[in-house]
User: Fold these one by one.
Assistant:
Number 1:
Amino acid sequence: MQYMKEIIEDKNLSFASKWQRRSELIYTQKDIDAVRSEWAKFMMKYHIS
């Protein structure tokens, strides 16, 4: 999910450069937890009881 977010937010529109650098990315558990938290907060805005 973090990788997808970075792709979308990147101003460089070249897909080839985005695909090439994917192998250089390393996400820590802290990074993963941050994305999970952000996603959960986003989804809670649209949760209907």
Note: The longest helix spans residues 29-44.
Number 2:
Amino acid sequence: MTTPIIWSIAGLDSGGGAGLSADQRAADAMGVHLCPVAAAVTAQNSRAVEAVFPVPAEQLDAQLAALAQDLPPVVVKTGLLGGVAQLRVVTRWVDRLRERGPVALVVDPVLRASTGASFAGDELLQAYRDELLPRATVATPNRREADRLVGEGCPQQQSPLLGVQTVCITGGDAAGPLAQDWLHSPQASGWLALPWRAARNNHGTGCCFATALAAALAKGFVPADAAVLAKMLTTAGLLPDATPGAGAGPVRPAPGFITEAGLLPGLFDTPPARWPARPDGPPAIEGVYGIADSGAQAAELFDAGLTTVQLRLKRAAGESGAAWHTRLAAEVQPARDAARRHGATFIVNDHWRAALALGVDFVHLGQEDLLALDTTARADLAQARARGLRLGISSHSLWELARAVAWAPDYVACGPVWPTLTKAMPWRPQGLDNLAWWAAMSPVPVVGIGGVMVPEQMVRIAASGAAAGCVVRGLKELPVQDWLDAWRSGAGMPATPDPAWPHPSLGGA
């Protein structure tokens, strides 16, 4: 497999903390090839920036021309540019590269050093607004940079920044128990958060974040997934170690960050006040997880030995509310009664308010259901959870897994593991590698779902480390005992090694 190439056009930090030095560390941890292009040279140490010397425009142009002949990029990332002339060299080359094929542009608008030195006057700010940002795929300003670009007190949680489709406004330097970044993208919007880390080595966080995001785009991830990976890498590099100078030391991410479970962020609808607590007690589900399309089938599955069954019903077009609730109640009753007889777990899909009214205490919601919740419904669901309602959530991508984490559910479903005809969806199959990564990284149990047609597939799900495996159509074709035997066989096998990286489940940027 060819290693993706990205260009970073940024400043050279003589202290080795930020700029191209940070970009190189992030690119190495992400497993991409970085071409470091100097747009400015700085005289700085760990405490202060003493001077900035923009590289002459013709020298910057020569660097890019040389690279274009032999090392064309998948993604270009910009940092400190030094001046309007340098910015215009970049825009010209982005346009030339895009004439040859798709090239993403990640703009980290480095306008001020963390020590307070300003890198941009009014003319350069206007060039960002009028010339560079309109070409950007993603922009990653911090809160102060976003304010300078669009005006003080800008509504940062609103979309998008100066026409850029994906914006991630980083805010890890703000006080509070959580480090929160605002994400707006075509795939998802919300607050990416992780517990705040006290670290002296925090010089170059913005550079690392932007480069990691660029690298993730180069590896084929869509922007929302790329932002999740960038959050993970940057947090991993915040270390409490001794610093090489008197000021802040450099962020130092390592390749192993991708399998550190504590680095998976949550994606919250509103700014969170605290990190969500995990559900207490043993796993809510384990083993073979059946999905039935009627209450009678669900009851039969419980009687045949399944300990977890979900009832998946859809409201018919034109069906009135009263008729729907009557039908739902009639379908729920036999399944609920059978579950109680066997001490089993009965789950209702989607219809959480109706399920509660019918005495069901476990519901499953898809991502579209979560997005459809208004402020009142989110509050009501949270209150129901506090009173004991158990919850499972679907996920098909990194950002959906992060959104699920924010709800602290009882389990997360990962799918489709294999291609499925049960319902149309845009997602690529996750495969057993992504399922194993989900199982290793998720703070709650993971269920493998999608395309399970023969017992051997259930064996492989069990061996992946997942807590349970879903089967739908296969329950009508083979006896329940065949599926139970398959689960036991897989659960007794040596665990599948954790994959080094997940693969993208949607097409890239």
Note: The chain has 16 helices and 18 strands.
